[in-house]
């Protein structure tokens, strides 16, 4: 199951929310302009062209809008550096797991994604990711057209100060209650 954990950006050990409830994940991510969905996983271990062909219809639905959209397949790329992009991006997890951290406003939202998860990262939101010591996640990335900036970004944080992939995986349990703010 997908896991969402939220911390204040200046208190990486103070949990504001921790949940595996899909409805709560969708609602919380929508609050910061991000998105979350699930696609059925249809096979694994495919080459890039086969993987794109297998999910072509779903990818095409994501790129139906105007402007230039780029689609690629990424395997276990490193990402422990906070950054932002001018366009939104969707990440479909075809296999493996990784944590995507979204630094929006004064909070950091960590989404432990698993096969079938689709995470939409809004334009201009600082983010980084961690796939563990030997990242093996495979994602289809859909990059959307650039958007005008909507205001100042929050100050940068130290990604290493927040619980990493291995710690979040080790702590997870199906019995966690949904915590509220």
Automatic annotation (TrEMBL):
Transmembrane segments: none
Domain of life the protein comes from: Bacteria
SUPFAM superfamilies according to UniProt: RmlC-like cupins
Name the UniProt record assigns to this protein: Cupin
Xref: InterPro entries: ARD (IPR004313), RmlC-like_jellyroll (IPR014710), RmlC_Cupin_sf (IPR011051)
């Amino acid at each position: 199951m997908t896991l969402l954990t939220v911390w204040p950006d200046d208190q990486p050990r103070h949990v504001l929310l921790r949940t595996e409830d899909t409805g709560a994940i969708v609602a919380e991510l929508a609050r910061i302009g991000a998105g979350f969905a699930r696609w059925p996983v249809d096979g694994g271990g495919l080459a890039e062209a086969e993987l794109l062909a297998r999910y072509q219809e779903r990818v095409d639905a994501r790129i139906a809008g105007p402007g230039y959209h780029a689609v690629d397949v990424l395997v276990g790329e490193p990402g422990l550096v906070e950054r932002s992009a001018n366009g939104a991006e969707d990440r479909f997890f075809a296999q493996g797991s990784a944590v995507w951290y979204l630094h929006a406003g004064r909070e950091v939202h960590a989404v432990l994604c698993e096969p079938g998860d689709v995470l939409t990262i809004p334009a201009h939101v600082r983010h980084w990711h961690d796939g563990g010591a030997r990242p093996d996640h495979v994602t289809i990335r859909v990059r959307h057209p650039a958007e005008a900036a909507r205001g100042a970004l929050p100050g940068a944080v130290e990604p290493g100060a927040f619980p990493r992939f291995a710690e979040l995986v080790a702590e997870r349990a199906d019995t966690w209650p949904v915590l509220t703010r």
